[in-house]
Amino acid sequence: MPVIENNAFVDDVWSNLHEGDSARDRSMIIVPLARLEEVLAGWPEDHRGLGVDVPNDADIAVLTPHLARLDIVTLNFPGFADGRAFSQARSIRHTEHFTGTIRARGGFLPDQYGFLLQSGVDSFEVSDRFSLAEWVRHAGSVPATYQRDYATGGLATRPFAEAGSRREQPSFG
Amino acid sequence: MNMHVTPEPNMYRYDEFDRKFVDARVEQFRDQVARRLDGTITEDEFKPMRLMNGLYHQLHAYMLRVAVPYGTMSARQLNVLADIADKYDRGYGHWTTRQNIQYNWVRLEETADILDMLAGVEMHAIQTSGNCIRNTTTDPYAGAAADELADPRPVCELIRQWSSLHPEFTYLPRKFKIAVTGSPNDRAAVKVHDIGLRMHLNEAGERGWEVLVGGGQGRTPMVAVTVRDWLPEADLLPYLTAIMRVYNLVGRRDNKYKARIKILVHEMGAEAFSAAVEREFAEASRETLEVDARELARISSYFAAPAFETLPAFVPEIEERKLADRGFRQWLTANTVAHKVPGYTIVNASFKPAGGIPGDATSEQMRGVARLAERYSFGEVRVTHAQNLTMPHVRTRDLIEVWQQLRDQGLAEANIGLIGDIISCPGLDYCALATARSIPVAQEISARFADIRKQHDVGPLKLNISGCINACGHHHVGHIGILGVDKKGKEFYQITLGGSSTENSSIGKILGPGFGADEIAGAIETVVETYLNVREQGEEFLQTYRRLGAAPFKEALYAGN
Amino acid sequence: MNDKTEDCSEYVVTANEVLSGDTVFRNLQDKWVRGIDDAAVLKCQDSGFVALGDAQKDEHANIVMGAYLVEVSRESGAIRPVHIRERIRALGPTVRADLAQVAQGFSTSEVVDL
């Protein structure tokens, strides 16, 4: 499936480790969360190229001890209305300070692209239903945000107010 | 030389940033409509998008719910709401229990134009529906009530901005409602909201907030539990963020009817839920605290008290009129409320005429109240959760004029807080989810109690009607609640007694078998007559019910059946 | 009348127009019209489903949404839904006769006395 990063299609360097597959001698693989500890046990400490696929009902606290050894976390949208992955992304990126790639998968829509970026997602596995231009233009369809600490590049936030002061009230019309 | 200047009330005003934000949201919506119409997105995908901008599709037509943030608006804005009713709807709107207004007959193709018109007066329909954080509600008398600790609206505005298009919390398990009170006498129903915030002052005079979580009505009514007795004001947004994150991550999504936060709090247990929130809160970023404090200070400066005059509290001509004119006296008793500044009074305009549709307002009535507010109330109007309007700052000496002018517009029915002041959802006449009609029941009951003397004799009595189990008419917290259901293709109405949404909140209990459409009004009369027979001196309906329970009412309604 | 069985009632096809949101009914010419009295009445559910399938093409074309079958009966020549919800949808709101969906409007008792 096409992958979007930095508002462009990129080659997907990752492959998924499927049920029963062995992780031995492999690299650039994304393993299911349920197998993470098992794979990590046989994974050399200095070896990179490992990612994890996290179901959207998983408590990301279980990831915390392992994040430093991971390069990518994939989060899932069973449908666009199920917004758990927004909070998972925010927690991993902001609370756990994960610096690797966070990839969204599943049924999210272009209209959610901006919110995903703001929540910390920086990689998008998408279908070919929508064009790249359609995705990208939604990064800033509302080019302003009230959430300063979620703001990504290009989004306006309110200029800092002088404490205790306010401008003359503008008048209508 | 004195030019007429429309007074602009002291309320939050958009700066360039807010304006840019709302304008962009309108354009985004316009684009979403275009993609719906050209087939780029399906109705299933478009539906949540339109709902997040207040656009429903109801029984007959699209319905647009416009936000009146925490119920505060200017006369200028009210005039534009009237213009929208005339230009894009059928000349009327409907005040909602979330202090908003909804229009019943809008067209999809014109909705973005309506939103443009709203943006022109710093209004919008953002998050008036959908599984996101809805319009924060508060005391309709905020900034005016004699009993409040401080004006809660700056905090409401802070929450409005924080919750608007929040990137993390816009696809929640279910809708999310926050209510805030700055008064110990809760007129904002904080105990039956997803989150309720109640202001307290400490010994140093600093403001802190009691945080209640997990209240709500709907199918499973619950009274909220307090998870924090005292939250320093500076911690409000990080704490709300922690609650929202826990809810977004673990709130149920497998069953729509179990997806509200009250079910999560109930299933986890209040202690475990609270602990999860505290863990999240402990890890919350502190970097925004100083910014929040500055923002709150900036917002607060907009809500400065208006330029009140120094006036005598006692106005002889009002007292004389009170003695001489029973109609005025009744209106004064029921429809006005003590103001914190001597010589001023809070005035309610009743949108509950006897036999009328509760909460419906014609464009002419909207303009009429706007004119009065401009002239008598610093240009300020409130929408109440009981579906009326309030003019918060009227000089006591102007009350006779205001009363007369309200009467001319049919808005002076002296029934606020009485049995004629019925809260009613639109019911099956408009709503796609309803199972029975609500409005005709409200009309018949208010017609039967049209005698204002009778209503005053009965005293404070909240009668709330919902046309289905979703409880938009707040029947669970009515002293008398009526729930309309469909029983084998017929409308059928259950009565609950003993509900309350105040600081002593309780959920009403079902009295017994329900009544047909042609019986329900009579049954309510019987309940009221029973109360009149058994009450003690000075006892209000709810007190009588709490003292005696359901027995005398059951006896009166069902004995012999 | 005695050969009329339960699964052979009369139906009309209804939907809502996407642009206006208005309640519309399918007529004999397969056009969408605003008054239920101009709707094509289909005998038995089977023919109803055939007509509904046809109507759903207009859903895919984004002209209407939510097409479905409504059971109706004839009352003094007028076509009237059997269930109260559909009755109010086709004719109501009952509380604003001036805004009623059909020209002649209808009385509250017409709804209640089903």
Structure description:
- The complex is a heterotrimer of chains A (173), B (561) and C (114).
- Chain A has helices spanning 36-41, 84-95, 113-119, 132-137; strands at residues 3-5, 8-10, 15-16, 29-32, 50-54, 72-77, 101-106, 123-125.
- Chain A is of the alpha/beta class and 173 residues long.
- Chain A has a single domain (3-150), classed as Rossmann fold.
- Chain A has an eight-stranded mixed β-sheet with strand order 2-1-8-7-6-5-4-3, covered by helices on one side.
- The model of chain A is unreliable at 163-173 (pLDDT under 50).
- Chain B is of the alpha+beta class.
- Among the domains of chain B are: 152-302, Sulfite Reductase Hemoprotein, domain 1; 316-408, Alpha-Beta Complex (Sulfite Reductase Hemoprotein, domain 2), CATH 3.90.480.20; 423-558, Sulfite Reductase Hemoprotein, domain 1, CATH 3.30.413.
- Chain B has helices at 16-37, 43-51, 75-88, 108-119, 153-163, 236-250, 261-268, 270-282, 289-302, 316-324, 326-335, 363-376, 399-408, 439-448, 452-458, 520-534, 541-548, 551-558; strands at 55-57, 62-66, 72-74, 92-95, 101-106, 137-138, 178-181, 195-201, 207-213, 225-232, 336-338, 344-349, 360-362, 380-383, 389-395, 423-424, 463-466, 480-487, 490-497, 509-510, 515-516.
- In chain B, strands 16, 17, 18, 19, 20 and 21 form a six-stranded mixed β-sheet that branches. A five-stranded antiparallel β-sheet of chain B has the order 1-2-5-4-13. In chain B, strands 3-14-15-12-11 form a five-stranded antiparallel β-sheet.
- In chain B, a hairpin with a 5-residue loop joins strand 8 and strand 9 (207-213).
- By secondary structure, chain C is α+β, with helices and mostly antiparallel strands.
- Chain C has a domain at 6-83.
- In chain C, strand 5 (64-75) and strand 6 (78-81) form a beta hairpin.
- The interface between A and B is large, with 47 and 49 residues.
